[in-house]
Design brief:
It is a single chain. This protein has a single domain, classed as Nucleotidyltransferase, domain 5 (2-Layer Sandwich), CATH 3.30.420.10. The radius of gyration is 17 Å and the shape is globular. It contains 7 helices and 5 strands. The chain has a 5-stranded mixed β-sheet with strand order 3-2-1-4-5. The chain is α/β, with parallel strands linked by helices and 231 residues long. Helix 1 crosses helix 2 and helix 5 crosses helix 6.
Length: 231
């Protein structure tokens, strides 16, 4: 079994390019997010709403960290980046081309945190936007309770009476917190201040933390994350 954790980061597209339909969608998204995060300043709310919808945002970075045999001994992360919206298509082409090179007979467990609700739909939407065909359908699996071939750690707590973010899980499992330098919806600011390398470091830290959390859970309760379905 090969273990691959991955994460993506997004930015809002330039509003001056929005169509009437996109502007309407932005208003709806701002209203929805505003009800859930009423303390956000208007500019932050606008940025968050656009960053989290594939009609309004683009993928800046996809980071992948691979463990060929044991998730506790991963390789160095690899990232695909697009510093501008115009670079997104080429980034996605490179990402899907690399995924196509994995041997078809080698089982892979894809590992995310909240990937079934966010990363996979966003990746699929932006891929289809450019008329590209995904080369690995297993990475796009979103069945909520099935953890093969895609194990989303968020679903472990999805029906519990609690909210669990990646940084919460890291604290719970005593894994270094990858969110010390900001939140995902602030990637636009990070891109402006630290450039694409700052975004790369942030995204790779999330992917590495996700794999580390998976490895710790697997060590204690392997059937929970490697069985066919969540128990």
């Amino acid at each position: 079994m090969m273990y691959i954790a991955w994460d993506l980061e997004t930015c809002p597209l330039p509003e001056e390019r929005f169509s009437d339909r996109e502007r309407k969608r932005l208003e709806l998204e701002m209203r929805w997010h505003g009800q859930r995060t009423p303390d956000l300043e208007p500019a932050e709310l606008r940025r968050k709403a656009a960053s989290l919808h594939p009609l309004l945002g683009w993928i800046v970075c996809i980071s992948v960290i691979r463990a060929p045999e044991d998730p506790e001994f991963p390789n160095e992360p690899r990232s695909y980046v697009a510093a501008r919206p115009e670079e997104e298509r080429a980034m996605l082409e490179a990402f899907w081309a690399d995924l196509a090179r994995f041997p078809a007979d080698r089982p892979i467990l894809w590992i995310t945190f909240n990937g079934k609700r966010f990363d996979v739909p966003f990746l699929l939407a932006r891929t289809l936007h450019y008329g590209l065909a995904p080369t690995r359908l297993d990475v796009l699996q979103t069945h909520r309770w099935r953890n093969r071939p895609h194990c989303d750690l968020w679903t472990l707590f999805a029906d519990a009476s609690m909210n669990m973010a990646l940084e919460d899980l890291c604290t719970l499992l005593q894994v270094p917190n990858p969110k010390l330098h900001g939140q995902g919806f602030l990637i636009e600011e990070l891109l402006r201040t630290e450039g694409i390398e700052g975004v790369r470091r942030y995204c790779e830290a999330d992917a590495a933390a996700t794999l580390a959390c998976f490895a710790r859970i697997r060590r204690l309760y392997p059937a929970l994350v490697e069985g066919g379905d969540f128990l």
